[in-house]
Each structure stands twice: as C-alpha cells, then as structure tokens.
Design a protein that fits this description.
Blueprint: H1 3-14, E1 18-20, E2 32-34, H2 36-55, E3 60-62, H3 71-77, E4 85-90, E5 97-99, E6 119-122, E7 125-128, E8 138-141, H4 146-150, H5 153-159, E9 166-175, E10 190-200, H6 205-222, E11 230-234, E12 246-254, E13 257-268, H7 270-279, E14 285-287, E15 292-294, E16 297-304, H8 305-316, E17 317-321, H9 328-331, E18 334-338, E19 349-353, H10 359-372, E20 378-380, H11 386-395, E21 400-404, H12 406-411, E22 413-418, E23 424-428, H13 432-441
Parallel strand pairs: 3-9, 19-20, 19-21
Antiparallel strand pairs: 1-2, 4-5, 4-6, 7-8, 9-10, 10-16, 11-12, 12-13, 13-16, 14-15, 17-18, 21-22, 22-23
The structure holds glycyl-adenosine-5'-phosphate.
The site of glycyl-adenosine-5'-phosphate (GAP) has 19 residues, from β10, β13, β16 and α8.
Length: about 450
C-alpha cells in the first residue's frame, strides 16, 4: 500500500471518517462503516449528485427501489449467468484464490504453487426470504441499483406522464461478493451507487452517450478533481460488461494507480427487452407523434459513492511543510490540510474560544455555536492551543474557523479565518449568519 494511501487511511480512522466494519471482532470482509465525519461527507456527495441529476435537469425524476427483488429480475438481467462472474483459480498448495485476469504468471503469486484450472465464480450475494431456507426462498442482494429502475420503467412512465427522452436517478446500496476486494473502500463487498438511467430513441443513443460522458467528467472536476487525474477509457468489445454495447470507464489516478470511479454505458435494449421477455409484460414505448413502438435504449451513468469519496479525499489531502502557521514550533512541522470543496466538507464552521479557562469566553463561544448549529454543520472545540485547534480543523477540511477572544466580549464580534487563504477578518456576530451563507454557498 503506497505511503500516501496509508496516511489517508490513518486519517480516516483517527478523525472519524471511516472505520472497518466489526473492528472489535477483527473486521469483516471488506465492509466499512462511515464515522461521524464520513457520513457528513458522504451525504454531501449524494446531495450534490442528486441536485445535479434531478433538480438541475428538467427530464430526470428520482426513485428509491427496494434492495431485495424477485430473483427473476437477476435471471432476466443476466447477472445469474456467465455475464456476472469472475474466472477464479486456486493455488493447490496454499489454497488462496485469485482472479485469473489479474495474474501475470501461471503460478501462485503468494507461494509459487501450482494453480487449478479457472472456475467461474458468480458475484451475486445470495440470501433467503421467509422462514424456510430452501431453493424456493432464495433471492439476492442487488448487485447494481439500476435493475430497480428498469422494472419500474412502466410505473414511472405512466405515473409521471413522461415522454422520451427522460431519465430516472437513484442512489442506494449494492452488494457484490468480490473475490479480490481491496485498496480500502475502493473495492468493497457492500457499497453505494449513484445511477442515472436515460431512456431514449435508439437513433439518439450515441449523441446522449457523449453528452453524459462529458457531464460526468465535468461533475468531478467542478468538485475539485484535477483534469490530469481523470481519464475516460473506451472499453473495446469483448471486455465490456455483458449488457453494454458501448462502455467508457471514468478513472481517477489514486495513489495506488488508475481506478474506475464511474462507468458510462450504452445498454441498448438489453434490459427492457429481457425484462419484457421474462415477465411477459409489454415494456415497449409508444410514441404518439410518430406512431412508432420500440424498446428505448438506455444510457446509464453509474458512479460509486465510496469511490468518488475516496477520490475527493485523495485529491484534497495535502501536506504543507512550514509557512502556514507562523508560531515557531508549528512552523517546523508538516501540516495536513484537506482542501476539499466547500460543498463536500463534512464540517463547514468551527467555533473556538481563544482559551478555555475564561468562563465568559466559553459562554460566548457556546452561544455562537448554538446560533449557527441549525444553519451549518459546526464543531465546537476548546481543547489545546488555538494553533493546534486550527490545525485539527484544517486536517478535516473545515472551511471556516471562528475565534472568540476578549475583544469579542466588548465588541460583540469574532475573528473569521479561512482554511485556504488563512486570511483573518473581524465579523460582527449580528451579521454572522448572512456572511457565512455568502461564503459557504457561493
Ligand atoms: N449499473 C452498472 C454498474 O453497476 P459497474 O461498472 O459494475 O456498473 C459502477 O459499477 C460503479 O459502481 C463503479 O464505477 C464503481 O464506482 C462502483 N463499484 C462497483 N463495484 C464496486 C465495489 N466492489 N466497491 C465499490 N464500488 C464499486
């Protein structure tokens, strides 16, 4: 694991972004828990995506489908057959298993032992519904959220009186029994997806594919990812997902190498035609103007919440040697600053009394904290020197720090310090909410 990645993982644990699932029992197979700061940041990512996809667009509506669905959905979608399986080999000596396409040699990378012939390994997570655990009760945790959208295509079309082209957006959990999970939350067994399915006329599919590809790259760069750390890879036939006629993987340059954070797929009529066949329902679209009846093509944008989260963290993480803090002791130390976009930062404002052994200062600071709490995600901190507290806030990406000093008691004001410019200005408490809104919302 590269050092940069180790530092980010350690920050995540130390500061309450991400913990290993069931850690007191030694952890549980590549599942992760988002801590108090992690859940704020994750919610921010989802909020920005939801706003981008539903509020800013005229033709996209939302959905929140169940995780558990009829197992017939997964037969129709191709996920229970060869389409959604990895080829696995096992070492005859140490019995470790590996993905065949990730191996460079025909020998075990761990012990050099002989490998078995490859075997298909399906990634769907099986479970049982109801009191009897037999084959009739088997179903699966969804492996992609979009199937809930396809099986509701008719419902949305009719209830919302939609006309093509239009989209349906959804955020939710997905599960895959990954054989080689790893790189922290990059490849997990339980993760969240933000997916938008755009239904259109087959003749317009290519045009919309290019449009959505650009939009999704722009979304990431607008939130702080540098252009040079993103690339879009066109996946050739034979390597694409089983449902895709065209596929572009949007990759981010993580400390451990390039990795996919979002996929843009032209799924053609794969899903609707298969669901029509398996369910016996007519899922074709009837265009009243042209009198044409056809299966719409689907352009999908499919992002992982966790992978974008990790990309934003990696991009924002900076170590600055000296220069930021002027006090002699701190100036020699490496300061960690999370230069995360203000829309994504878990904490927007920190309220800090200059010292904590002066009850009047503490009282005033707590009043300011209570005043701001309903409006912004805030933290109150009185422990340690003011320099240390600024640095603790910088490390978690807090945008603004407010310090209440002795002058504040006389003037009813405070000092506002900006994370990025380090500029300090005095603000009257009566103007505080208005000014913070301006600074945080623009
Ligand atoms: N509906 C299409 C679909 O699911 P995918 O390329 O298999 O396509 C889309 O997955 C996105 O979901 C990926 O780009 C990634 O961000 C996220 N994702 C997939 N598997 C994941 C895993 N095991 N852990 C974390 N995120 C994952």
């Amino acid at each position: 694991m590269p050092i940069q990645m180790q530092k980010i993982i350690s920050l995540c644990k130390r500061r309450g972004f991400i913990f290993q699932s069931s850690e007191i029992y030694g952890g549980f197979g590549s599942c992760y828990d988002f801590g108090p700061l992690g859940v704020e940041m994750k919610n921010n990512i989802k909020k920005v995506w939801w706003a981008e996809m539903t509020k800013k667009q005229e033709d996209i509506v939302g959905l929140d489908a169940a995780i558990l669905m009829s197992p017939r959905v997964w037969q129709a979608s191709g996920h229970l057959t060869a389409g959604f399986a990895d080829e696995l080999v096992e070492c005859k000596k140490c019995h470790k298993r590996f993905k065949k396409d990730e191996l460079e040699k025909n020998q075990c990378p761990e012990c050099g032992g002989e490998l078995t012939k490859p075997r298909k390994f399906n990634l769907m997570m099986k479970t049982f519904v109801g009191p009897i655990e037999d084959e009739a009760a088997v179903t699966y945790l969804r492996a992609e959220t979009c199937q809930g959208i396809y099986v509701n295509f008719e419902n949305v079309l009719n209830s919302m009186r939609q006309k093509l082209p239009f989209g349906i957006a959804q955020i939710g959990k997905a599960f895959r029994n990954e054989i080689t999970p790893g790189n922290f939350i990059f490849r997990a067994r339980e993760f969240e997806q933000m997916e938008m399915q755009w239904f259109c006329h087959p003749k317009e599919a290519n045009k919309f594919f290019d449009y959505w590809k650009k939009e999704r790259i722009k979304w990431h760069t607008n939130l702080g990812i540098k252009k040079e750390n993103l690339r879009a890879i066109e996946i050739p036939a034979g390597k694409r997902a089983h449902y895709a006629q065209r596929q572009v993987d949007i990759e981010y340059h993580f400390p451990f190498g390039w990795g996919e954070i979002e996929g843009v797929h032209n799924r053609g009529d794969w899903d609707l035609s298969n669901h029509a066949k398996h369910s016996g329902q007519d899922l074709k679209y009837y265009d009243e103007t042209t009198k044409e009846k056809y299966f719409p093509y689907i352009i999908e944008t499919s992002g992982g919440v966790g992978r974008s989260f990790l990309a934003f963290l990696c991009e924002a993480y900076q170590e600055i040697k000296g220069g930021r803090t002027k006090t002699t002791k701190a100036a020699k130390e490496v300061e960690v600053v999370l230069k995360i976009d203000k829309k994504l930062a878990p904490i927007k404002v920190a309220v800090l009394p200059l010292v904590r052994n002066k009850p009047k200062l503490v009282k005033k600071a707590k009043e300011v904290y209570q005043l701001l709490k309903p409006h912004f995600t805030c933290q109150y901190d009185e422990l340690g020197s003011i320099g240390r507290r600024y640095r603790r806030q910088d490390e978690i990406g807090t945008i603004l720090c407010l310090t209440i000093d002795f002058e504040s008691l006389k003037q009813d004001d405070l000092t506002l310090r900006d994370r990025d410019t380090m500029k300090q200005e005095r603000i009257k408490i009566k103007d505080l909410i208005k000014i913070l809104k301006q600074k945080l919302e623009n």
